[in-house]
Amino acid sequence: MSARHGSGHADSDASHEPSLVCVVDDDLSVREAVAALVGSAGWRAATFATAQAFLDAPAPSVPACAVLDLALPDLDGLELQQRLSGLGREMPIIFLTGRGDIPMTVRAMKAGALEFLTKPCDPSVLLDAIGRALERSRAARRQADDLRAIQERYDALTRREREVMSWVVAGLLNKQIGAEIGTSEITVKAHRGRVMQKMQAASLPDLVRMAGRLGVPLPRRR
């Protein structure tokens, strides 16, 4: 497996730590070849000879994917895929194996694998798969960071502001909300303004989107 391919695959933002490709294969020559290919593309590689060694390693703090063999000496690749999901360590997975068959491929893809490649693999095909996997990881991390920020803003609301927010996203007008919670329309308007400000919502649809992502339950009118 040559490392001549991949010069155009490097991370676009050089100010950040390069993305990580975790290679899990009990064949040293495969680990070294994939690591060299990954390095030529501007990414970092971490190699593991067993599934357990990979599971024992800290979860990556940067966008990452895993290139897994099926035939590992402890857990096989499909079992490792299940274990990662059970631990909440969601990571795009590419299987690279010399003994795959159609049932295994179907099982891996149904469980969320991005690609199922057989050895020997064209380096450009593997690099393309890795590039797509890392982009998926970057997108997932962005979404997680965005959700975390929204949750922090929601947690900063007072109990009354959360109550008003739930009625606002349910579509009620200020006067209607006041009647539901037993306060004046002017007071509701003030609470609503603070909710919009604290949540950094640019519009009502923006606030509704945030509430949906947080799973804020909609109240029922009396």
* Assembly level: single chain
Span of the ends, CA to CA: 68 Å
Strand content: 5-15%
Shape type: elongated
Computed over alpha carbons, the radius of gyration is 24 Å
Order of strands, widest sheet? 2-1-3-4-5
**What is the residue-mean pLDDT, rounded to a whole number?**
89
Number of DSSP helical runs: 9
Counting DSSP E segments of at least 2 residues, the number of strands comes to: 5
* Estimated structural class: alpha/beta
The ordered H/E elements are: EHEHEHEHEHHHHH
Largest sheet: 5 strands, parallel
Poorly predicted ranges (pLDDT <50, ≥5 residues)? 2-8
Folded structure, characterized:
The structure is a single chain. The chain has about 220 residues and is α/β, with parallel strands linked by helices. About 50% of the residues lie in helices and about 10% in strands. The chain has nine helices and five strands. The chain has a five-stranded parallel sheet, sandwiched between helices. Helix 3 links the parallel strand 3 and strand 4. The N terminus is likely disordered.
Features:
single chain, alpha/beta, 9 helices, elongated
Outline of the structure:
By secondary structure, this protein is an alpha/beta fold. The chain contains nine helices and five strands. The protein has helices at 28-40, 51-56, 77-86, 102-110, 123-155, 159-169, 174-181, 185-199, 204-214, and strands at 20-24, 44-48, 64-68, 93-97, 115-118.
